[in-house]
Amino acid sequence: MRVLQQSFFTSGRKVKPTETNSGPPTPPNHPFSFYQNPKITHGTAPLGTGGGFRLRHRRLRATAPLPGPKRGARHRSPEGRSLPGGRCPAAIFCHPPSEKAVAGGGPAALRVLIGEPRGQAPVPAAARSRRARHGGRLEEMEVGICKQDMLQKKKNAVLVDGVILNGPIMDSKAGEKFVEEACKIIMEEVIQKANDVTEKVCEWRAPETLKKILDLEMRDTGESHQKLLQLCQDVIQYSVKTSHPRFFNQLYAGIDYYSLVARFITEALNPSVYTYEVSPVFLLVEETVIKKMIEFIGWEEGDGIFNPGGSVSNMYAMNLARYKFCPEIKEKGLSGLPRLVLFTSEECHYSMKKAASFLGIGTENVYFVKTDERGKMIPEELEKQVQRARKEGSAPFLVCATAGTTVLGAFDPLDEIADICEKHGLWLHVDASWGGSALISRKHCRLLCGIHRADSVAWNPHKMLLAGIQCCALLVKDNSGLLKKCYSAKAAYLFQQDKFYDVSYDTGDKSIQCSRRPDAFKFWLMWKALGTTGLEERVNRALALARYLVEEIKKREGFQLLLEPEYANVCFWYIPPSLRKMEDGPEFWQKLHEVAPIVKERMMKKGSMMLGYQPHRGKVNFFRQVVISPQVSREDMDFLLDEIELLAKDL
Amino acid sequence: MAEGSGLERPGLDGAAGEEFLGQALRLLLDEAVRNGTDRARKVCEWREPRELRALLDLELRPHGEPPQRLLQRCRDVARYSVKTGHPRFFNQLFSGLDHHALAGRLLTEALNTSQYTYEIAPVFVLMEEVVLAKLRELVGWGSGDGIFCPGGSLSNMYAMNVARFQRFPEGRQRGSRALPRLALFASQESHYSIEKGAAFLGIGTDNVFFVRADERGKMIPEELEKEIERAKSEGAVPFFVSATCGTTVLGAFDPLQSVADVCQRHGLWLHVDAAWGGSALLSRTHRHLLAGIERADSVAWNPHKMLAVGLQCSALLLRDTSGLLQRCHGAGASYLFQRDKFYDVAYDTGDKTLQCGRRVDCLKLWLLWKAVGTEGLERRVDRAFACTRYLVEEVKRRDGFQLVLEPEFINLCFWFVPPSLRGREGCDDFWERLGKVAPAIKERMMREGSMMVSYQPHGARVNFFRQIATSPAVTRADLDFFLDEIERLGHDL
């Protein structure tokens, strides 16, 4: 690191004489070359308050101002010594010359005097007198400080409110080097270790301990690059390795190199997807990906948008259905209207309730439909609920079916639900955030049979397909611009209609967001790399591994499946030896309830793997194991079961 | 089903993947980081949609492509994308590339986690808390709550929902139909997300009362008072005022003290949409623009705009310490927020959000802050102000440039009057013709790729340019170039 620093800051900061417009030199001990903002020049008046501006130019002698202290920090000279009194050497330049001194230096509004190299121009009277007042000490100090930078003459230096505008205030070379170093760490510590099962999944520390280990505080002054890289390493060390083959905790896991590359590129290009003008590539990519996803749903045409999460996609759909049902609500609001009622299964994702409250529909107007023992909505129950709502005089408008429930991985029977929706004229939304990816597999797409009859679908490729958080599409069957009509606000500053290109490409007004991330791109690049067949293999493999695990669980003593999984969620209890002979009764279940949390605690403290557990609808705590990552092999499945046995044998 | 020896080995080639990633990182550093910020290169490489679609070969096919082909695609994506980090990208309220923040963003992507529980994101749960506390401190609050949201629009909507919940907690369950007609207030210069929010939340856009602003774009407190009375006389129940700090087009700051007085008098929730202007809080010289912000109930602040943190980094800050956010949005999902965990589940903060999975947006800001310190951020803010002031004076000095108004902030709004129109200010068709100048210049600059700046009509004003310089890489030469280039592109119009 030492060497690195030197090359950044010592040699790297020498400005070539040809770079006439480059900024003042960088101090060697600071990561970036920020110039001191000599506050003592005026300029506290806000812009435009009338006569408040102070645009001052001054004759800078040999050097430009150097970074200086603020908030009590002592300025450090390039040699690393602190300066007497913590005063900034730049202070000698900070006092503006009097009006007289600059009079005649150009139009009154803009007094820019051209700074010339030392010795060629007279020093303004005020500056002279100030220097005289300070005596030789400052002169001497200035020479001492600036010795090595003497050759860099500042030409045309412009100081506005004490801010030098000539050079950039950042050192790009050093910055680039920093990014390179950070990339190296990311490669070594995150990527290369992602495949290594001997690495820990997590390095557990209790919150209070971790707070002490991580130096989180944000201070007045910056830190060296060396320190920053160390901080990055700490962040990595104590973060959970979601790409580890033994991370089974969530509905996402693993690493896909192609999507990761796309995500890195996205970060480097930093686009916002609202207009073709600003994001030409990413808008076209989004359009392509949405079209392709629509094809898999089975619609001939449609619309769509990528959102910050499946919950938001569900909210979009709910609002869209409401808009279709009664467009005036957009203007008038809901106050005084009859009850709008929506239907979803008991096993649906909690975002339904959150959406109903956020959208002002109210949680009591979400009617939960009973499910069968496998977690699938019972169509007859849906019919009953719709009848009930009608009888109550409320206005049913939406059914939300789930394809891949969060805990059990159940798929609602879409065809039968679609029949009911058709009969009652209800919008059918399918929350396929988790299960949607099965559409890619010819073998498993039957799970979503009937999805083409939906009006809208939420599908998160960041889950099963490893596109990376977040990658969530809302797809809409309507092709008449419903999405746009529902959401548009026609901001004149962004969606100008007199642009020189076809403004129908400016699709950002379809969104409830303003700036929006280009989340389709990572999915696109991954798809390009793997092809549809590669994605299909991924889904097939994950489900084959889940199948394998199910068979193993059936074989092993002490493991008990909750139910035969339909999808990649394998839900099971582990019954430790001490409980195996107990009679079935409240005590047994109470004891079993306590097992999963303890096993979880032990696995996290050991860092050997991670998987989730929960109680669920009257069932005591059980594990939910989810296989997603293509890095997972059969051995990891065996390990999972062995490890649970090992961690729980004494319970 | 589980037959197939394929399950014995990993389903992807890690070594090949790493190699690809290594090559792509080099490409990224060259194309996006170095070339993308190089003045000698174009800001954008304009192509018509149809042409670009063909160039990119967007179609998704059954079979995958080899790494070299993919790298070429990445190069193309970088080439035809707008370089928002380029020093001459003045088009949006964000620009510039900060290397520290970028490193934080790359790390965020590599770690790929979701910010809901301590279990899954221990470092980021703690970090978010620290970052939010720091932002609150700058607002002037010693305590409070907050959350990072996917954009300022959603931050504003969160605030609106929390305000509604605080006033009518029963609305969460019963819905807005059971509530009286609600009224909310924002200046006519406010961001369009206020209207979108009112529609989305079921409040209705008709119930947004737009308060008149003065000629500089600042809300007139007396008008707010009048609108509140008007809403009441119509039988609506006022509950929420959104003041704007840094309006999108003009960069105006509403007078928070007077607005807060009105809110206090009427018992209304005061939200400050400081998505754009919030970063001025970092500058001791300029933070007076937001004087009174500590009296707000909630503040939206997007460090991704002025501080070049990278999209998205958008905080909603609350003064409340009673857990309002949690009560308003919490759903207590038992599969995620188990109560019998072995650690203090108060650290599982994800239930405060509307989202389920949520991106880690704190790391990039935190790393940037660590790198440059509060002082470094302050210097950036001060410098952006100074750049604008420099331009204002230049615009005044140069022939043909006309300020729309003296900027309060760093939105430089001006017309360029081409030589053919100069001296014709009295003519009937002057404004109509002037309104066509900005689009024509914009087209030319985009086709050349020399820079990007936005324009818009606003109220009764015909199209004018709005220039924003937030990138720390911008120098005076870029500012001079900017004006010269407008002159050059518009001289024959």
TrEMBL record, chain A:
**One of the GO biological process terms:** carboxylic acid metabolic process
In this UniProt entry, the residues modified to N6-(pyridoxal phosphate)lysine are 463
Q: Which family does it belong to?
A: Belongs to the group II decarboxylase family.
Q: Where is this region: Disordered?
A: 1-30, 61-85
Biased composition, class Polar residues, residue ranges: 1-10
Give the protein's recorded name: Glutamate decarboxylase like 1
| Keyword annotations from UniProtKB, A to Z | Decarboxylase, Lyase, Pyridoxal phosphate
Q: What organism does the UniProt record list as the source?
A: Cairina moschata (Muscovy duck)
Q: Name one GO molecular function term.
A: pyridoxal phosphate binding
- Domain of life, per the record? Eukaryota
**Pfam families associated with the record:** Pyridoxal_deC (PF00282)
UniProt keyword Lyase present: yes
A cellular component term, taken from the record's GO annotations: cytoplasm
Cofactor names: pyridoxal 5'-phosphate
Per UniProt, subunit arrangement is: Homodimer.
From TrEMBL, chain B:
Q: Does the keyword Lyase apply?
A: yes
Q: Please name the InterPro entries in this protein's record.
A: PyrdxlP-dep_de-COase (IPR002129), PyrdxlP-dep_Trfase (IPR015424), PyrdxlP-dep_Trfase_major (IPR015421), Pyridoxal-P_BS (IPR021115)
State its cofactor.
pyridoxal 5'-phosphate
Sorted UniProt keywords: Decarboxylase, Lyase, Pyridoxal phosphate
PANTHER family on file? CYSTEINE SULFINIC ACID DECARBOXYLASE, GLUTAMATE DECARBOXYLASE-RELATED
The record's similarity note reads: Belongs to the group II decarboxylase family.
- How does it associate, per the subunit comment? Homodimer.
Please give the name of this protein.
Cysteine sulfinic acid decarboxylase
